[in-house]
Amino acid sequence: MAGAGGRAPLGLRRWLSSPAPAPRVCVVGSGPAGFYTAQHILKHHGGALVDIYEKLPVPFGLVRFGVAPDHPEVKNVINTFTQTARSERCAYYGNVTVGRDVTVPELQQAYHAVVLSYGAEDNRVLGIPGENLPGVYTARAFVGWYNGLPENRDLKPDLSCETALILGHGNVALDIARILLSPLQLLRKTDITDSSLAALACSKVKRVWLVGRRGPLQVAFTIKELREMINLPGARPVLDPADFTGLESAVRDAPRPRKRLTELMIKTALEKPVEMQAAAAAGAAAPREWGLKFQRSPQEVLPSADGRRARGIRMALTCLEGSGDSAKAVPTGAVEELECGLVLSSIGYRSLPLDPAVPFDSQHGVIPNSSGRVQGVPGLYCSGWVKRGPTGVIITTMNDSFDTAQSVLEDLQGGVLDTSPPREGFGLVESILRSRGVRPVSFSDWEKIDAAEVARGKAAGKPREKIVDPVEMLQIIGH
Amino acid sequence: MAHSILGLLRPLRRGLNGSKIRLIFLCGVTEQHHSPAKCWSERGFSSTQGFQDGPEESSSKDQVTVHFINRDGERLTTTAKEGESLLEVVVNHNLAIDGFGACEGTLACSTCHLIFDKDTFQKLDAISDEELDMLDLAYGLTDTSRLGCQVCVKKWMDGLTVRVPMDVSDMRKQLEVGKQSKQ
Ligand SMILES: Cc1cc2nc3c(=O)[nH]c(=O)nc-3n(C[C@H](O)[C@H](O)[C@H](O)COP(=O)(O)OP(=O)(O)OC[C@H]3O[C@@H](n4cnc5c(N)ncnc54)[C@H](O)[C@@H]3O)c2cc1C
Ligand SMILES: NC(=O)c1ccc[n+]([C@@H]2O[C@H](COP(=O)([O-])OP(=O)(O)OC[C@H]3O[C@@H](n4cnc5c(N)ncnc54)[C@H](OP(=O)(O)O)[C@@H]3O)[C@@H](O)[C@H]2O)c1
Ligand code: FES
After folding, report:
1. In Å, how far are A291, B1, B33, B100 from B25, measured between CA atoms?
2. Exposed site from A264, A338, A418, B149, fewest CB < 10 Å?
3. Are A388 and A366 in contact (CB under 8 A)?
4. Residue A457 and residue A463 in contact, taking contact as beta carbons nearer than 8 Å
């Protein structure tokens, strides 16, 4: 490392006096990882130019296509991202699939540094018989459907059964349960797509089981999301007090988050749902309900008599070996069958390799790296879910993106990245894209699409009506 | 859209592209699910109604000195107005704390995490379950942690010092500095 003097070695001062040409950095993916990496580099390097490439015409990744429609406050980060994109030293190029329209080695020729922040676009699979029967959906596809992700717009999930079962005890599982059971008038005011709203309006689902292979002390969801579910109007939590026996003392000395989360589950399990009983006694419509089932590992999705669709699921009961987060679920030999017409597998997302030139650890589904520096490929970096694996909320992604940005800044400063030969940046990429018939979407193009969506939503009293067809998006901007 | 103003202006004010814009800050203009801080000054006006005057325009009797120890150890000192939330203080005074206040004070991100000294912490208003829920996701959670968007400046806080917890990249920087100084 070059011995930088002063207290702020990566500060602006140094770079303003630097004679080297402006370093050109490119970021692949416009989710939180891409935007936070760009933001940090721009802020701490007064001269760097950052270009962001995105596969879809529209930006923001899972903030647009993952975060639940009834969580608009989480999407406030878009305002900060928008300012980053509007910075004079930042450019956005949507509608460019890296690895197909332009390769990573080509990007490396055009830029001094390339940061891969392309997220996790696939999902883990259960690997059990019946997984592909009609009536079984991945959480990723279901979320993509209600959030207007182009590839999932035609999912048309069959919601004609009364009982749905969600495999997994993560926050995505809770998101889905909430969307399935929320009163329609709550969803109507969100940016959920019109067609999913119509489908949910006809939904017969009134009972949702969330099934985990381990116990209450191993749930992956967080307390805010659980509390929201418990307080959901018109839906009753069904927790079996027996599942929580002895846990109060087990968590007495646990870290506060785990302790509070467990205590909330215990309290809910022991509470008498007075109001609900009163409502039922008064002859009100049967309330919707949801519950948590523990220590059940999915074994097979059972087909209906005609073999045409899912009718239930067989699960192996498990016991736990070890304790705490690292406890392992081991089948006891006993099994249980549960009838359900809708199965949603919410066992996690998964990143895919992008380009043969980029090393990939397929076992862990990440790009091997240290502090965001891709192993064995100088000048190549990664951040976000593809760096760390598909877990963590936006603040986790923010922190690890700052960490990667820090590595880029250090390498620029320490001379690891040679910035003396100027790089052409988008100039070079543009000619490559043109030769392949690809037309990028700029940030101001996106702002036109954004305005069109907001205008469409206005009529219906929604924050926006998402356009789900990329062709239509491109029409709006005259492509 | 009013709720977006904070986010729109912060990076600008931090000099991403150098513009100087006078901040018109509307705290927590409500959307249905928001949990904006309800900060009431003694005069009884709520910061949720917004204000447009810079700190220099308020009378000195409303002014409270607040120190933030940033992640790199740097002390940022500013004069806050009674009734502002600590998030508003950071934003309105353009304090360079990276990533602070991502959800704009709607209790949905925990990026406004601040650490208090024990005595001050005990004097603060009670914590709601919702704030605790969000704090549980914060990095480097301590027994005296609060979310800056939920803590309002009061007259008695004059001279307050709060610490911004470190994130991964800061811990790394510290390690590097440690390594270098040993060489
Ligand atoms: C359903 C769901 C709900 C969530 N809700 C919350 C929440 O409420 N609060 C919270 O804090 N966190 C939430 N999270 C977590 C949060 O979304 C993630 O931490 C964060 O989005 C990860 O950021 P990322 O940039 O790594 O990935 P992504 O957000 O997935 O961004 C990756 C981007 O790269 C693009 N891309 C992919 N391949 C290519 C390619 N070949 N070329 C160019 N671009 C490409 C993608 O289109 C995408 O835009 C949620 C996650 C999920 C799955
Ligand atoms: N509101 C929010 O803040 C919000 C909303 C959505 C998502 N997110 C975040 O996004 C990230 C991803 O969420 P996620 O729910 O997809 O993932 P997750 O939190 O990792 O949860 C995955 C769940 O699937 C289970 N699982 C994995 N493999 C399994 C298998 N083969 N069989 C049965 N169960 C299996 C896991 O159980 P084991 O523990 O036993 O492996 C776990 O309960 C998380 O960090 C989450 O917090 C946040
Ligand atoms: S600003 Fe997001 S929780 Fe305080």
Report:
1. 42, 12, 20, 15
2. A418
3. yes
4. yes
Q: d(Cα B67, Cα B44) in Å, to the nearest integer?
A: 25
Which residues on neighbouring strands pair with residue A336, listed in sequence order? A315
In degrees, rounded to 5, the angle at the alpha carbon of residue A446 between the alpha carbons of residues A443 and A452 is 150
Cross-chain CB nearest to B136 (options A79, A222, A403):
A222
What is the C-alpha separation between A314 and A126, in angstroms, rounded? 13
Rounded CA-CA distance B56/B61 in Å is 12
How many angstroms separate the Cα of B83 from the Cα of each of A50, A211, B51, B62, B93? Answer: 39, 46, 11, 9, 15
Residue type, B153: V
What is the spatial distance between Cα A73 and Cα B105, in angstroms, rounded to a whole number?
9
Specify whether the CB–CB gap between A25 and A112 falls below 8 A: yes
The secondary structure of A293-316 as a DSSP string is E-SEEEEEEEEPTTSSSEEEEEEE
Our measurement of the distance from residue A153's CA atom to the centroid of its chain's CA atoms, rounded to an integer in Å, reads: 17
pTM above 0.80, yes or no: yes
Q: Is A205 exposed, middle or buried (0-12, 13-18, 19+ CB in 10 A)?
A: buried
Q: DSSP characters for A322-384?
A: S-GGG-EEEEEEEEEEEE-SEEEE-S-EE-----TTS--BTTTTB--EETTEETT-TTEEE-T
Q: Check: CB of residue A429 under 8 Å from CB of residue A107.
A: yes
Calculate how close chain B gets to A433, using CA atoms only, in Å: 29
| Nearest by Cα to A295 from A331, A269, A261, A322 | A331
The first and second tokens of residue B129, run together, are 């379950």
Site to probe by mutation for ligand 3, drawn from B5, B31, B106, B162 as the one with most ligand atoms within 8 Å of Cβ, is B106
- Say what the alpha-carbon torsion angle A149, A32, B111, A39 is, to the nearest 10 degrees: -150
Residue-wise pLDDT tens digits, A337-385:
999 999 999 999 999 999 999 999 999 999 999 999 999 999 999 999 9
How many other β-carbons are positioned within 10 Å of the β-carbon of residue A434? 11
Calculate how close chain B gets to A133, using CA atoms only, in Å: 37
CA distance A364 to A39: 28
In this structure, what token pair is assigned to residue B139?
């990095």
CB atoms closer than 10 angstroms to residue A451: 12
End-to-end CA distance of chain B: 53
* Mean pLDDT confidence for A452-467: 96
Question: How many whole angstroms separate alpha carbon A13 and alpha carbon B168?
Answer: 24
Residue in this structure with the two tokens 């992640």, named with its chain if needed? B71
Query: What ipTM describes this predicted complex?
Result: 0.88
Is A47 among the annotated ligand-binding positions?
A: no
Which atom of ligand 1 lies at the shortest distance from residue A60's CA?
49
Lowest mean pLDDT among A75-84, A306-315, A406-415, B13-22: B13-22
Q: Which atom of ligand 2 is nearest to the CA of A71?
A: 1
Whether residue A61 contacts residue A351, with contact meaning beta carbons closer than 8 Å, is answered with no
Can you give the pLDDT at residue B48?
A: 36
* Ligand with minimal distance to A393 CA: 1
Beta bridge partners of A303: A310
